[in-house]
Amino acid sequence: MSAEGYVVLWDFHSCELLTAHLPLIDELRASASFFYFESSNRCEAHAEIFTKAGVI
Question: How many domains does the chain have?
Answer without folding.
Answer: 1
